[in-house]
Specification:
758 residues; single chain; 35% helix
Length: 758
């Protein structure tokens, strides 16, 4: 049953209206007294109590910058993406159309430049109007600004449930507090500063906070260029953004706009002619959707996502993840990154051209770094961040680790088996021990039994290759891809032709502890860390890792090869060069962090050999050539996993290092890269030079010259001398050549086979 109204207080009756008027006027009197009369001069306990309550209210307002849009920029200053909690871009008052300033004052607070924060004339006028049944607000622009600031502060603190809204959960005490703060604010800030703050904080639409965002959202223009009818429409929105929305309620919006125009005419802000022209203008919004986030990045969405994860994981941006997200997504930051848009465009073009169409969802990824700084120049993959009809979408970044070194999420795939791209690091230790790369070793040797006397000054070597010991946990005899390579070869020939047996024959003469130190020094690590082991080593004491069996991310591989390009200095990869908050204050960013990793002579020797890979070895079909048809000094190494499910080319000039990968990005990455169709072409088995190779070659041919392609310094002569040729052991039995790839050596992961011609 409906509650009966007390006829005495029914505002529909004349008596009710009078009583309402007197009651509200009494409240108003208390407010006015509190605002204008010193407490000592007021007699009467009720009045004194009210004034005492008022005097005890806070008079200071914490005016923090409101939540603003954060922009992520490429190295040249172009925008990659924007992110926000509230879509807002702060602008100064002189960058706001005069029409907008006049319109909002006309409709919201015509006496703005006359009152001291609270308009008592407006309050009395509103009370009389309300008593007559025509409800009218009396909050000044200053009061509205105070209310918006208070609510913004609550939101920034995560206390959205305490936000106060007029007519919903705001009482007399709240209004008193608002009034006192408004008076205090007017003493601290000029009228223009208050108006600027108000126009930058006020809500226009769920995708538009502040006048700049509203101008761009509704009219695809800036606040500075708003026309009279556009400004009047936006000023009218403030009262009720949903009721006067020009998209969903165009008729209501026009009526409200025309009301604002009428007020502007009455207050002599515009002429009759301007009014007539404006009201005759149709309501015609030209909406630019506020697409935020890396999914809508104009370029490099996965690099953008990587940058955000780096900041979200950085304690310098807040004590906990929530604090960090509030700063990053609401702090109006300007994040300048290392990304080269030209290089990124070519990288994206190449991964799409090489593997853009494959219904079985094979992945392609390519990342480049600058050797002498560690700056990430480009990062691309053949997927879309958002679903596209007929496309391959993924939110996982194929180029980076799953977690960072502190165990925080990077949203990465965690890499893939690098295959023979690991061989240069064993070769580097060969040179590090002072051996000539032209030393001949026994490439016919395929058996390394469980009791083989490997040399390791800091641990035990695990694994074995021996047909006769498979029951004891050994793998089958070591295998090359083609039978003609089971013969004596120089260590150099073994590397540039990617011969497994030569890698093992050279490792048999080395200290495995030295190989491990080389791998660690150049930043190589497993790409699938856990919170218990956030920075896992690639254990070179496991024989299978000589051939690349541990998953490693393309970014890690590119940075490791960049060490050779940088004359032996390793630089940590970096993506962020500068961060500024909304006031222009610098926040922590990344800077180049480089260290001596391997001897310069060793790096030069490796560069010599890696050039031979492209000149006459396993990568000879992918030698990059610039538009003139000539090639430039460049080294690289191909790689293919045991089942062809992960294929690589990693290489560098003196100025740019790039890792190119094609393979299985799904689940446990167990699919074989055999009998597959990519971009309409059938492959019986994928090798590194087939898809990853052209991606690498075409990219480097177009981009590397801009970063420097000077000749590599020559290695010292002792690393190139023709030494005494060692006598090889008898070749393995002929029927061994036809055996399948070796099985898993216990307890190591499955060995990785690299094609001899990949």
């Amino acid at each position: 049953m409906a509650t009966r109204k007390n006829p005495l207080f029914d505002t529909a009756t004349t008596l009710g209206k009078i009583l309402l008027f007197l009651g509200v006027s009494g409240i108003c009197g208390v407010l006015v007294a509190g605002l204008l009369v010193p407490a000592a001069a007021v007699s009467g306990s009720a009045a004194s109590g009210s004034i005492e309550f008022f005097e005890q209210l806070p008079a200071e307002l914490k005016v923090d910058p409101p939540s603003q849009t954060t922009r992520i920029l490429a190295a040249d200053g172009s925008e990659i993406a924007s992110v926000f909690m509230e879509n807002r871009t702060k602008v100064s008052l002189d960058n706001i159309s005069p029409f907008m300033k006049d319109a909002v004052i006309a409709v919201e607070d015509s006496r703005f430049y006359e009152h001291g924060g609270v308009d008592t004339t407006g309050i009395l006028r509103a009370l009389v109007s309300t008593a007559r049944g025509n409800k009218q607000g009396a909050s000044t622009i200053t009061q509205q600004y105070v209310n918006n600031v208070l609510n913004a502060n609550l939101a920034a603190e995560g206390n959205e449930d305490q936000i106060k809204l007029n007519g919903v959960n705001k009482g007399v005490g709240d209004k008193l507090r608002e009034m006192k703060l408004a008076i205090a604010l007017e003493k601290e800030f000029s009228k223009d500063e208050i108006l600027e703050g108000y126009l930058n904080i006020v809500f226009f639409n769920r995708d538009a906070y502040g006048i700049e965002a509203a101008s761009r959202f509704f009219f695809s223009t800036s606040a500075k260029d708003l026309t009279l009818p556009q400004a009047a429409l936006l000023a009218g929105l403030v009262n009720s953004p949903s009721a006067f929305d020009p998209i969903s309620n165009p008729e209501n919006s026009k009526a409200r706009r025309d009301l604002v125009l009428g007020l502007m005419l009455d207050q002599k802000k515009i002429t009759q002619a301007e009014y007539d022209a404006a009201v005759a203008t149709p309501v015609a919004p030209k909406v630019t959707p506020a697409r935020q986030g890396c999914a809508y990045a104009s370029k490099a969405p996965y690099f953008c996502d990587y940058v955000l994860h780096l900041l979200e994981n950085n304690p310098a941006y807040g004590a906990d993840p929530q604090d960090r997200k509030r700063l990053i997504y609401g702090g109006g930051l300007t994040i300048t990154t290392t990304l080269d848009p030209k290089a990124q465009a070519v990288a994206q073009e190449q991964v799409n051209a090489s593997a853009g169409k494959n219904p079985d969802k094979w992945g392609a990824a390519m990342v480049s770094v600058q050797p002498n700084s560690g700056k990430i120049i480009s990062m691309a993959q053949n997927t879309t961040f958002l679903p596209v009809k007929g496309g391959f979408d993924s939110q996982v970044n194929f180029n980076v680790d799953k977690l960072d070194k502190n165990g925080a999420d990077l949203n990465g795939m965690g890499g893939a088996q690098p295959g023979s791209t690991m061989k240069p690091f064993t070769f580097a230790e060969w040179l590090n021990e002072g051996k000539s790369m032209k030393t001949v070793v026994d490439g016919s040797k395929r058996r390394y039994p469980l009791d083989f006397p490997w040399r390791n000054s800091c641990g035990q070597v695990a694994g074995a290759y021996n047909d006769n010991e498979t029951a004891l946990g050994a793998a089958e005899d070591l295998q090359n891809a083609e039978p003609q390579w089971y013969r004596p070869l120089s260590v150099l020939e073994g590397l540039y032709n990617s011969i497994n047996t030569v890698t093992f024959a050279s490792a048999a003469q080395l200290d495995f502890c030295g190989i491990q130190k080389i791998v660690d020094a150049v930043g190589l690590h497993g790409g699938l860390p856990s919170k218990d082991d956030p920075n896992p080593k690639i254990n070179m004491f496991t024989l299978a890792n000589l051939l690349g069996s541990t998953q490693t991310a393309p970014l890690t591989m590119a940075s490791a090869f960049a060490t050779f390009a940088n004359d032996g200095k390793y630089c940590e990869p970096i993506a962020i060069t500068a961060v500024k908050d909304g006031t222009g204050k610098a926040l922590p960013a990344q800077s180049s962090s480089c260290r001596d990793a391997i001897k310069p002579d060793v790096a030069r020797g490796v560069n010599y050999a890696l050039q031979e890979v492209l000149n006459r070895g396993s990568g000879s079909l992918i030698q990059p050539r610039i538009s003139t048809g000539t090639h430039f000094p460049i080294g690289a190494k191909t790689g293919t996993s045991n089942n062809n499910g992960s294929t690589w080319v990693v290489g560098h000039t003196t100025g740019l290092a790039t890792a190119s990968w094609f393979g299985d990005p799904l689940g446990n990455q167990g699919r074989a890269g055999q009998n597959i169709t990519v971009n309409g072409q059938f492959y019986e088995g994928i090798d590194g030079y087939m898809i990853a190779g052209p991606m690498f070659s075409n990219f480097m041919a177009r981009i590397a010259p801009a970063y420097g392609t000077d000749p590599f310094p020559a290695p010292p002569s002792n690393l190139l001398d023709e030494p005494y040729v060692q006598r090889p052991e008898p070749p393995a039995p002929k029927d061994d050549d036809a055996k399948e790839p070796p099985a898993e050596p216990a307890p190591a992961p499955a060995p990785t086979k690299t094609k001899g011609n990949d």
